[in-house]
Design a protein that fits this description.
By secondary structure, the protein is mainly alpha-helical. It folds into 2 domains: 50 residues, no CATH class; 104 residues, fold of a uncharacterized protein from magnetospirillum magneticum (Orthogonal Bundle).
């Protein structure tokens, strides 16, 4: 049995400009050497160290690899809204904590006509994750806080939250291209989580 909940989101939020570049490498099916050259020598992600470039590239690749090339194309070539939401879909599939937070907490706030998130809601959610997944490691407080910060930043980027400091919720429309792609590929969990405001 594998643990469901992992702290695999702390490397960064949606990272849209970087994700466009990684999606391009993946769509062009570059060789391992070309990948290494682009990330480490050319520093296409414009990070301050090779270590940081490699970590971010690996994080984005592991996220995008879970989806089909059709979605990578949306990431690379789409306008700001399409690219952001396509990455958001991949992030939900990649990180169960993000998906379940949307599905169990954000959805419930919308349903109850509550218009904001609170620190207590996050803390209760993390405790409930442990109950659903006994194999989940006990996250140090600093890790839990970092995860909350990254997840809320993602929600700001897609428009579900007003800002990183203002946790009032807003409803958004998911673009048809993303919805159709998820339906076509039977991504039912992602589809459910991405549309929590409906």
């Amino acid at each position: 049995m594998e643990e469901v909940y992992k702290a695999n989101i702390t490397a960064g939020a949606l990272l849209v400009p970087e994700s466009r570049k990684i999606a391009d490498l993946m769509l062009r099916n570059v060789s391992p050497q070309e990948w290494k050259d682009a990330i480490e020598q050319k520093n296409i992600l414009q990070k301050l160290s090779v270590l940081s470039s490699k970590r971010v590239a690996s994080h984005i690749r592991s996220r995008l690899e879970l989806m089909k090339p059709e979605l990578w194309q949306m990431v690379r070539d789409g306008d700001a809204s399409l690219s952001t939401q396509a990455i958001f879909a991949a992030a939900i599939k990649h990180c169960r904590i993000l998906g379940d937070y949307l599905d169990l907490v954000v959805r419930e706030q919308f349903r109850r006509l509550e218009d904001k998130l609170t620190p207590a809601l996050w803390d209760e959610f993390v405790l409930s994750c442990k109950q659903r997944d006994p194999l989940m490691e006990d996250f140090p407080p600093s890790t839990a806080k970092k995860m909350r910060s990254v997840i809320h930043k993602i929600l700001v980027e897609v428009g579900y939250l007003k800002s990183a400091h203002d946790w009032h919720l807003k409803k958004i429309e998911i673009v048809p291209e993303v919805i159709e792609c998820l339906k076509k590929n039977n991504e039912e969990y992602v589809l459910k989580c991405i549309q929590v405001g409906k």
